[in-house]
Amino acid sequence: xxxxxxxxxxxxxxxxxxxxxxxxNPANTDELIGAFPRSTAKEVQAAVEAARESFPAWRRLSRxxxxxxxxxxxxxxxxxxxxxARLVSRECxxxxxxxxxxxxxxxxxxxxxxxxxxxPYGDVVASEIPEKDSFMRRRPKGVVAVITPWNFxxxxxxxxxxxxxxxxxxxxxxxxxxxxxxxxxxVELFAEAGLPPGVLNLVxxxxxxxxxxxxxxxxxxxxxxxxxxxxxxxxxxxxxxxxRKMAACEMGGKNPLIVCEDAxxxxxxxxxxxxxxxxxxxxxxxxxxxxxxxxxxxxFERRFVETARRITVxxxxxxxxxMGPLISASAREKVERYNALSREEGAMILLEGRRPDGPAxxxxxxLTPHIYRMAHNPRSRVLREEVFGPHVALLxxxxxxxxxxxxxxxxxxxxxxxITEDYRKARFIREECEYGLGYVNLPTIGAEVHLPFGGVKxxxxxxxxxxxxxxxxxxxxxxTINHAREIKMPQGLKTEIG
Length: 498
Known about the structure:
Blueprint: E1 2-3, E2 6-8, E3 11-13, E4 20-25, E5 28-37, H1 41-60, H2 63-79, H3 81-92, H4 96-116, E6 122-125, E7 132-140, E8 143-147, H5 155-166, E9 170-174, H6 180-192, E10 200-202, H7 207-216, E11 222-226, H8 229-240, E12 246-250, E13 255-259, H9 265-277, E14 287-293, H10 297-309, H11 329-344, E15 348-351, E16 370-373, E17 391-397, H12 400-407, E18 412-413, E19 415-419, H13 423-432, E20 437-440, E21 452-453, E22 456-457, E23 465-466, H14 470-473, E24 474-482
Parallel strand pairs: 1-5, 8-9, 8-11, 9-10, 11-12, 13-14, 13-19, 14-17, 16-17, 19-20
Antiparallel strand pairs: 2-3, 4-5, 6-7, 7-24, 15-16, 18-22, 21-23
């Protein structure tokens, strides 16, 4: 068992209160991964003070030099890639091949921001006055709070920390209480890479006790959050009350995959399986609604259910399994409630989600896929609310207008995919659906770090994470220089007195 620590101004410390919370392996709850500080507002205060104190020197450092710390970080992650991946699997329950991809995605983000440091970070723009030079430059905002989820415990922190730090901000990082050791490992690697004290600070803890005082702290300039709509909306409300504070929140989805009449059904089934059941359906981009043309629905259903029956569920460290456990007992119980609700709301159950039998599954939060078919009902909760598990509906449609209407009939708008051989149909979906990430002949999962990641409606605030997060962590500033010996003003404004 490991003993976790906070990291404040370059020093590893325990909780001042002495409190701690445990983290156990969701695939085997007998395995105690570690105990981590149950931090309070006192630790948050110290972490924010450290970040504020370190900000001026870090901001003044060459942007290229800041990027070099990320290059050093990447080399260390490559050295420890497999060990980190196995930690991710043990801590959040995702299959080992997915955990390796999680670590690789974190590498890609660090590489992206390292490369960006030698690219322009402003623009030269024309002035109305020929004797003037005008520039647009970016400046860091200050102290950034980074609050991340458990399902991508390595990649998502790098999505947020990478742009924030490389642009000259300092940060206080609170990882999910479900994946504290992975969050701590990220900070350990940055410390080993030589990142100056106070630039990146780590505070473990529970949302109400550590996360809430962090987002409310008056010296926090930006809050970056990925997680549920319920928590994200609370964060946005807090930040809206402080005119100095910016919030960028990515908050989940109820994502559709649309299968057109002309679709390659083999490709469609594969895309649907990956969309619905990778990471046990615990991705904000997971597809929980498969909207299928009525002429191919029966054949698609047969193939999809047949394939889902073959999904192996078990220990995520077993290379042969496809799905690991749900993250917690409460998460499994939530999915089971939605499974039961699908029947109550009139669905035809095609494959019943259940807790698998046998000693290999007895100590984990395992659940098999749940698949059902029903007509679209805009009042249905299972068709509108995010379930976050291996739970998926098949919905028929007659034409593309109906498919779009069904796809858009939720409060979310994160990802959409369409399976078709007709570029005109793909374009119609592109133009009419409400989403932030769109795919053609692909699953609804598969984001890349050099593209924006965010959604509309309840899925986000319109300030995506990953590469385009730069707009949330920097100010655009105007800088104009006069090369003449007299003052000339734009818009013909007079400069004479009297």
